[in-house]
Amino acid sequence: MVRFASRVFYFVCVGTLVFSTLVFAGDTIKVGVVDTYSGGAAVFGIDMLAGFKMGVNEINAKGGVLGKKIEFVTRDEKFKPELALAMAKELVMKEGVDILMGTISSGSALAISEYVKKEKIPFFVTYAKSEKISGEKGHRYVFTMGENTSMAGRAAAAALAKKPYTKYWIAGDDYEFGHAMTDSVWNHLKALNPKVQLLGKTFWKVGESDYIPYITQIMAAKPDVLIMGSAGSGVIGFQKAAKATGFSQKVLIYQHTAIELAVLSSLGLEGPEGVAGTASYMFYYPLTPENKAFVDEYKKIYNRYPTMPSFYGYTTAQFIAKAFQKAGKVDREKFIDSLEGMVLETSAVGRLELRACDHQLLLPTFYGVTKKVPEYKDFLIGTDIITIPPKDGVPSCEEIQKARAKAK
What we know:
5-stranded parallel beta sheet; disordered N terminus; alpha/beta
């Protein structure tokens, strides 16, 4: 808790200092970051900002982009879409930012996306997972820099379809991500294995703290697998309750991000073993020279390992710099033209393409189960890793076009 509080204090101070310099900034590229920096999901926003700041500092140390330094200013939207939208408008109208980025919340991301579509401002979605962002509600001015529910769902379904499980239950937070995540897993799983059965569904309000009644109900149905749709503190709270009740020993739990370091470090060694999860970045796998170099530098700066949002923040900074360099000037439309189809070769997970048809970053998805290992004494990690390549996890461009046409 002390370490978490210190992260919040540090980055609030950083954001305040940057804000004060932006007012008087001259020849800069301004980025407005709207994200969650307080509450149960704050760790994701804080780590994303840490990765982005690291990338920006590297770029600026080399002279910046087109002779300009990249500056950023932050706003805490407290996981509230209406507040996120108001802050995005403030950053554009009062601060004159060239780019917007964030958020953890899918609701916030969708709200800001509608706004930037009208105002023609580039917006990088750095952690929100709804497939609608780059799918049916996607457009020219929004880019998704992390995996979405469709990608995670397809990957989880591919792994679960090979297991001998037939009886499933769905549960999670009653909001956009909870439903989108569980629907994606279940719909793709049914297509791969028609023998599976859905015994029931349970959804609770976001912020729920007492999971025992829900676990009792689910245990009574005796499913083989529980497909979970929770995020942030919801993942952590449910896993603690699942271990305390013995539920995690009786039923396989699948939760996207359950093998993600931001979740595992919060749970520590008290987290349940054998929980299945998916992630698109892990600091220890694959341990390529590029990934090791990224991990070593991040740990040198922050004295902790990078998480999935850390990687997304860092990667976003790289894409921003490369696109402006290719565009040749600070021009929003040329910047977007440069981003479409852009490939980053120096990533910690290999070649990354920002697909032109939907502005979705094509990331691999890793499926694994939690386990204690001797190498890491403070938290569990994901083991028995299965890698699902981007081409097997992402909707086709034809599917994207159909979804957008249907939504009009």
